[in-house]
Write a structure and sequence with these properties.
- By secondary structure, the chain is of the alpha/beta class.
- The chain has nine helices and 15 strands.
- The strands form two sheets. A nine-stranded mixed β-sheet has the order 14-13-12-11-7-10-9-8-15. Strands 3-2-1-4-5-6 form a six-stranded parallel β-sheet, with helices on both faces.
- Strand 11 (219-231) and strand 12 form a beta hairpin.
- The longest helix is centred in the C-terminal third of the chain and has 18 residues, at 306-323.
- The protein is globular.
- The mean pLDDT is 94.
Amino acid sequence: MNVGVIGTGYWGPNIIRNFLSNCNVKKVYSSDLDINRLQKMKLRFPEIEIIKDSIDLIKLIDIDIIAISTPVDSHYMLAKSALEAGKHIWVEKPFMSDSKEAEEIIELSTRKNLKVFVDHTFIYTGSVMKMKEIIDSGDLGNIYYFDSVRINLGLFQSDVNVIWDLAPHDLSIMKYVLPKKVVAVSANGIANYYKQENIAHISVYFENNCFAHFHVNWTSPVKIRKMIAGGDKKMLVFDDMENFEKIKIYDSGVNMNNKQNIYDALVQYRIGDMYSPKVNQTEALSLGVSEFIKSIQDNRDPLTNAYDGLEVVRILEAANKSIKNRGKLITL
């Protein structure tokens, strides 16, 4: 297959590199509004062909896949143009600027039988795959809560707030490991520097008394990437900043001896062993590229598809509406 990559900023070079290294890819083209960045890409990857205008790139007959790595407000126009030109599309997170755009792209791709891959990269990491395996096995029991922290210093975005920038990572992980129905969302936060919020807390409510919380921040003095999944049997901690033992399982919990009268109940805390399962160390983006190409060959939706992208966008929309209304609960 031949691939066209639009956008060579922060993430674009990684997409180019991984498509080039896939044995099913014959040639990679790239376009960018910044000709200097394009020329740097050509120096870094001499085998690619550069085309400044993205529309000219999309119109090339021999291209099978268009990968879109541009600001989110350009995703819809580029994705629609690529689909109308008969190309399968790879779209960076967040999928679209709003759910209406996402629904239109789904309708168009379905009508033309073209595949849409949404780059929720963390789904392809060994750690997240192991998380899902453990939760699906029932080892943790019933999941009561999912807690996530993704904070660091920078990078400020001019087109979106911290929710749209950082939360898609963790929301996509939540949707993957916890296939539960989200019923409501609330968010609180503040903009200290620009009009866009740089600190936010998001609460997600499920239909079965399960709760998720996300803390995202561009202005933290420390970098933290941590998740906790709490079950009634065991609890799981995923710390992406750990070089080893990224996942730890704790045989810890709370036992209530009397559930009839909470005031007379005897609370017992269970603290048992901890173990760290082996996690496969494979580049997630490489697995994503392979999955997308295989889905095209098999004529099926990829693991991270447009429907997943739509669900994340709906939660982002609700969180954005809530944060503008001082934490108002938004039902889905």
